[in-house]
Specification:
By secondary structure, the protein is an alpha/beta fold. Helix content is 38%, strand content 33%. The longest helix is centred in the first third of the chain and has 18 residues.
Length: 247
């Protein structure tokens, strides 16, 4: 199976040259348009390595995963996570989600899911492995230039505050028929917000005072909120779906 995965992965890399890079991409030969059309794919849940298993977040992010897959590959028959929850029952589903969070799903668990969902071929789960934010700033000193008529054009000093969020997630799509992983890998995406401020004389004085006191000047020039985890995760799921086979 390892050799088979490597061969198919190489073919996917050739056909997905313009798609988002998926680190450690592994794809089995069962993950094809024909199987994705004949057997449905159900979103199974999303967990977080730091925050653990939170059902509310899992359901929200699973709906996001479904939406991004459908946007990228309309031919795929995707079912919501509620389909899996209703089939397994709430307590059993919790066990499955916790097992995935800790060690991934084994053959026995996949067999149990397959029995409950006879019309489903694949189940997709994801794990948020990193969710970080980073603040930044770029300052421009005041300047003077002359136009063609010799008129002096003054540009005031300015500061641009930025706030970036980066989300790293892994995805595992299990083949319920073959009882193994059909698609897996990691994707990292970042989004940034920014805000520009013109620095006036008062602002300059406050900045100097803050610097002397060892304080930042966020009170004078606030850093914008970072993009939400949801917004960045949407791009992560889009990146995975870009690497699904095309019809």
């Amino acid at each position: 199976m390892v050799g088979q995965l490597s061969l198919v992965t190489a073919l996917f890399l050739l056909t997905s040259a313009c798609a988002t890079k998926v680190d450690g991409l592994q794809v089995s030969d069962s993950f094809q348009p024909s199987t994705l059309k004949s057997g449905a794919l159900v979103t199974g849940g999303v967990v977080d390595t730091k925050a653990g298993v939170k059902r509310e977040d899992s359901n929200t992010y699973s709906a996001l995963m479904l939406s991004e897959i459908k946007d990228e590959r309309e031919y795929v028959s995707v079912k919501p996570v509620e389909t899996l929850i209703q089939a397994l029952g709430d307590s059993t589903y919790n066990i499955v989600l916790n097992q995935y969070s800790k060690s991934g799903l084994d053959g026995n668990t996949l067999g149990q899911i397959a029995e409950k969902l006879p019309g489903v071929r694949f189940v997709a789960l994801a794990k948020i492995e990193g969710d970080t934010t980073e603040k930044g700033e770029n300052r421009q000193a005041a300047s003077e230039t002359k136009n063609d008529d010799g008129k002096v054009i003054k540009t005031p000093a300015s500061v641009t505050k930025t706030h970036k969020r980066t989300v790293l997630a892994s995805m595992h799509i299990y083949d319920l028929k073959n009882r193994d992983v059909a698609f897996s890998g990691q994707v990292s995406k970042s989004k940034e917000t920014s805000r520009n401020y013109t620095i006036n004389t008062v602002g300059n004085v406050l900045s100097v005072v803050n610097a002397i006191q060892g304080k930042d000047d966020d009170a004078t020039y606030p850093t914008p909120e970072a993009p939400s985890t949801r917004d960045v995760l949407a791009e992560v799921f889009e990146g995975f779906a870009e690497n699904f086979p095309k019809e």
